[in-house]
Every structure is written in structure tokens, then in C-alpha cells.
Amino acid sequence: MAKLPIWIDCDPGVDDAAALLLAHWQEETEIVGISTVSGNAYVDQTTENALKLCDLMGASYPVYRGAEKPLFREYHDGAEFHGKNGFGGAELPEPSRAAERLPAWDGLYEAAKRYEGSLELVTLGPLTNIAIALGKHPDLKEKLHRIVMMGGSATRGNRTPSAEYNIYADPEAAQAVFRSGIQIVMCGLEVTEQAQLTPEEIDAVGEKDTPVTRFFHTAVQDILKKDMERGRVGWCVHDACPIAYLAHPELFSAKEAGVFVETQAELTLGKTVTDLYSDKKFGIKNALVVLEVNRPAFAQLLTTAVTHI
Length: 309
Ligand code: RIB
Ligand code: CA
What we know:
The strands form three sheets. This protein has an eight-stranded mixed beta sheet, sandwiched between helices. The mean pLDDT is 97. Helix 1 links the parallel strand 1 (4-10) and strand 2 (29-36). The protein contains 13 helices and twelve strands. The radius of gyration is 18 Å and the shape is globular. It is an alpha/beta fold. Calcium ion binds next to helix 1.
């Protein structure tokens, strides 16, 4: 089977790092480009982290720096979960190279033109770069195959009781993406909070004792603790879900739905309102909402990737 060309827009970020490691290792996907955005950490940090991770993987994927802040709102980081350096305090050597000259939105557009409609856009952070790209290059929506995102939720929130962080961080950008007409696969909290690695699985990775596993095992400790303090059996590897979905959709179940984003209200700001469980439908099915994952198989896939790079 031909490799799927993918572009990863991310805010590394501990689970973003897991997603990049998986995307690099699995043979079903080929990383064409990486773009970064302010999210878990400020964009200078997320860009540096993406470049450092490429060095760790022995890869030279082009990295494009993106938006410093949301379209209209103030930027709030995710240091509470990902630490000041975005990697849970885990350190990596200084990057061996700089980011590309083009900004994220132009780099993505050039790649989409090259791949003539086959490029899979994976989004793992706030959607600011994508909204800017769609606004500056209106024909981008015809040049992408799909957007496979970590974001949103049909039933809950993690940044507020009704909104997931990536959507909440820039709701206007997210709404522009959901209204774009591009086919969307939405890996929201329903599935990503199932996609956990247990402490035992994480420790087994650490026992391999390679540069990648040492980084991985160190980076996840703090966020693992926080996830377990919230009653989970392990660490929710949110961002690895879209990557695993691209290579192994058979591990997941999903339903088509209409999905749009609240951008005006106070209590529900950033909520991805879906008509999944409603008699009243939006009359459009603009997203495939992923709801379940085979967790043991997902964990096996991810731990195999991390221990074999
Ligand atoms: O809500 C989870 C998302 O927010 C993940 O992408 C994580 O990296 C953070 O950005
Ligand atoms: Ca992320």
C-alpha cells in the first residue's frame, strides 16, 4: 500500500511528541512537513521542540513556525500539564538546524499543491494556522484530502466543562475549519481519553534504555501523574490517536455527524456541538466523530514505535 503523505500541525507538547514518534516509525505514513503553533507552549518553544524531536528521531522533516497567538483572543499556554519547556521538563540537545523560512500557512499550502489533493492534514493543537491558511489560500480546501484532528468532544471538556483545549484555545479558528467543507475526522475526548498507556506500559518502554525511550519515559512522568490524579488508569495519549487512525482505522469506531463550534457563549465557548445524540440534526454531516479505540492494540502500536526508533 502506498504511504499516506501527511502534514502534522502541532504544539509539542508531550503527547504531540508521542504522535510524531509514531508517525515517523509507522510505515503507513510519510511525514511531508511539520508546522508549529502556540498551544501547550509558546510557538518559539514548540518550534524548538519539533526540531529537537526530529534530531532525536534522526529525521530532517521541514519544520515551519506558525501563529504566536489565537486569531482574536489572548494566548494561554498549557504549562500546567506539559511543563515550561513543553516536554515535561525532559531535556534534549539544542536543535541542529533552524525552522524553514516560510510561515506554517504558506508551507502547508505549497505542500498541498505538490500533493494535488492527496495530502492528509493532521492537527494536534489549536487550529490557528489552518484558519490562516484557509483565509490566505481559499483553494487550499480543494487541495487537502482530509483533516484528521485531535480536538473537540461530543460530550465533555477538559479545558472547561464543555470545551476541549485545542478548540477552546482558538474557537474562531476551529469554526472556520469545521465550516470549510474539508472532510474532517475528529478524534475528540471520547476516544482520546480511552487511548491510555498504563504506568506499567510506560515503565516497560523505559527499560529499553535508548535515547528515545529515556526522553519518552522522563517526559511523560508529570502528565501521567496528573491524569491518574483525575482517576484514570494511565496517561491519555490524545495526539497519537489521529496518527494511529490513519494507519489502522480498524482499531477505531466512528460515526458521521454535523459538528460546529460555539464562539459566542460564555459557558460553552469552544464546545464542538455535534448532532450525534440529538433528534434535531444540523442537516449536514461534516465530520466523522471517532468514539472508540481498541486500547491494548493502540498501546502496543505506540510502545512498539517508541522502542524501535
Ligand atoms: O486536549 C488535549 C490536547 O491539548 C492535546 O493536543 C494536547 O497536546 C493539548 O494540546
Ligand atoms: Ca497537542
